[in-house]
Amino acid sequence: MKKVRAAVFASGTGSNFQAIMEAGLHDDVALLVCDKPGAAVIDLAQDFAVPTFVFDPKHYDSKADYESAVLEHLRGKNITWVFLAGYMRIIGPTLLNAYPDKMINIHPSLLPDFPGKDAIGQAYEAGVSTTGVTVHYIDDGVDTGPIITQQKVSVFPDDTKEILTNRIQQMEHKLYPQVIQQLMKSEQ
């Protein structure tokens, strides 16, 4: 039986990475990939003894070049699944072709509503009464891949953007580890 091994891609504070680790998935996560040297998620990975590959895209001639470097690290760790957790880059063909139907993202809206950057701000400004969280497969579009699951989050009249952000992140931290566990268990 082939061991299921995951990589988590993140760019920032790492709150979803931390939720994944604290949900008991630390034995399955073999690599953190980060595109922001100095990001807080790197320290979290060290706290959980997860190896890291940190790169600065500015040091590469093209997206294909840095994705090839990432792919080399993924293959070196025998990674079978890739989970994006606040990774702020669009995945290109180099990685998509290497991991078809094995790359997953979490997005802070009920897709197809509010794709792309600042989805929470978009929902807040639109004045919707419900938004949420979507876990989906990654394809060559921006937040357009097949949806795995969604969870609604209410927006209350007295919410600030910060309060709404916190409520959505709480849902992300609950939902994403559950989905990851189910996907990885289905392969064992």
UniProtKB/TrEMBL annotation:
Annotated site residue numbers, Raises pKa of active site His: D143
GO biological process: 'de novo' IMP biosynthetic process
Molecular function in Gene Ontology: phosphoribosylglycinamide formyltransferase activity
Binding positions for (6R)-10-formyltetrahydrofolate per the UniProt entry: K63, M88, R89, I90, I91, N105
A Pfam entry, by short name: Formyl_trans_N
Catalytic residues (UniProt): H107
UniProt entry tagged with the keyword Membrane: no
Enzyme Commission identifier(s): 2.1.2.2
Residues that coordinate or bind N(1)-(5-phospho-beta-D-ribosyl)glycinamide: G14, S15, N16
Alphabetical UniProt keywords: Purine biosynthesis, Transferase
Pathway where it operates: Purine metabolism; IMP biosynthesis via de novo pathway; N(2)-formyl-N(1)-(5-phospho-D-ribosyl)glycinamide from N(1)-(5-phospho-D-ribosyl)glycinamide (10-formyl THF route): step 1/1
Enzymatic reactions: N(1)-(5-phospho-beta-D-ribosyl)glycinamide + (6R)-10-formyltetrahydrofolate = N(2)-formyl-N(1)-(5-phospho-beta-D-ribosyl)glycinamide + (6S)-5,6,7,8-tetrahydrofolate + H(+)
Keyword flag Repressor: no
Gene Ontology annotations for the cellular component aspect, listed alphabetically: cytosol
Transmembrane annotation, as ranges: none
Formyl transferase N-terminal domain sequence ranges: 5-180
Protein family membership: Belongs to the GART family.
Function recorded in the entry: Catalyzes the transfer of a formyl group from 10-formyltetrahydrofolate to 5-phospho-ribosyl-glycinamide (GAR), producing 5-phospho-ribosyl-N-formylglycinamide (FGAR) and tetrahydrofolate.
Name the record gives this protein: Phosphoribosylglycinamide formyltransferase
Source organism per UniProt: Lentibacillus halodurans
Record lineage: Bacteria, Bacillati, Bacillota, Bacilli, Bacillales
